[in-house]
Design a protein that fits this description.
single chain; about 75% helix; mainly alpha; about 0% strand; 11 helices; about 325 residues
């Protein structure tokens, strides 16, 4: 027998174990190609599934709060600031000798702002009830001030009406202003929760990036394996999966940076009491900061679709080779 008659293809070890039984996953001649392909196939699918889930949850963790912030929390904070400012202006006009249009205007602004805050439904049923109580107290306050202004200047009855109106407005236990300030603190706390990027989100995004790096390395290694072992220079399925992965990850990261930056700017803007012209400017600014956040949040569904496509491309890229080695004649 010649020296090369017993050579093993693909550089593999003997395909048989003691007693002539074939080693699991090995084909005649001792090649481990089928086994190696199967391992890479399972690894690619597992990493793709884990990355899709991690990216979806991390993305939702940021973008899921953006739309409620834009449509409810931020407007509620601005509405309550407007109500507080309007009531402060009304208090300055309450001591006028006769009813004034400015007082009525400020009371109307305050009442409308409280109603708008209640419509935003940030605090749930308890928040709506508290705001309804405030709205009723504003009506009582306005009536008492108007009754006072109808009395002669310096009269005891006028002073009594004004004193009662002042207690309705400012009483530390049950006044309108203290109630609104408590509600405003709750709304600002909600804004802080929605705009925070806490440890859980940091861990989620760190895990996502590590999984993405692992998947990229696995795709590259599999491509090199196919080139080295099967003489396949390029695998279109794997290249397509890599391109889709890179594009999808870049877009989601960019969307997340934009959204989080807008949310952080909104938090800084609303973190202090606003008054007068600042309220109008703040309304425009928050609308600009949070523009398109709803559209970017809706992209979360495409993460799942993209993950399925990456898995499908990886499956397509390896399936022909897997079938070829699985059914190769012995």
């Amino acid at each position: 027998m010649s020296a090369g008659a017993g050579a093993v293809p693909d550089g593999g070890a003997s395909a048989t174990e003691g007693g002539g039984r074939r080693a699991p996953g090995a084909r005649p001649g001792g090649s481990t190609t089928a086994h190696d392909l199967a391992v890479r196939h399972r690894l690619l699918l597992a990493l793709s599934a884990l990355l899709t889930l991690s990216l979806f949850l991390s993305y939702e963790g940021v973008h899921g709060d953006a739309d409620p912030l834009r449509t409810a929390s931020a407007p509620a904070v601005l509405s309550l600031d407007t109500a507080l400012y309007a009531l402060g202006q009304a208090e300055a006009d309450a001591g006028a000798a006769t009813p004034t249009s400015d007082f009525q205007k400020q009371i109307s602004v305050a009442a409308q702002s409280v109603a708008a805050a209640a419509g935003d439904d940030v605090g749930g049923a308890s928040g709506r009830q508290a705001l309804q109580t405030v709205a009723a107290l504003i009506t009582v306050y306005a009536v008492k001030v108007q009754q006072a202004q109808l009395q002669p200047t310096g009269s005891v009855l006028r002073e009594a009406y004004l004193s009662y109106a002042t207690s309705v407005l400012s009483d530390a236990g049950s006044g309108i202003l203290p109630r609104l300030k408590v509600l405003q603190a709750q709304r600002r706390a909600a804004v802080h929760r929605q705009t925070s990027f806490g440890p859980l989100l940091w861990c989620g995004w760190a895990a996502t990036l590590l999984l993405a790096l692992a998947l990229v390395c696995c795709l590259l290694e599999t491509q090199l394996f196919l080139r080295r072992r099967l003489r396949r220079r390029y695998n279109r399925g794997l290249l397509g999966a890599g391109a889709l992965l890179a594009a999808g990850l870049a877009v989601t990261l960019l969307f997340t940076v934009w959204t989080h930056a807008g949310m952080a700017d909104t938090r800084r803007l609303l973190d202090r009491p606003l008054s007068g012209r600042e309220l109008t400017d703040a309304g425009r600014a928050t609308a600009a900061y949070l523009a398109d956040t709803g559209l970017r949040a809706a992209a979360a569904g495409w993460i799942l679709i993209g993950g399925i496509l990456v898995m499908a491309l990886a499956e397509t890229g390896l399936r022909r080779h897997l079938d070829e080695y699985r059914f190769r004649p012995r």
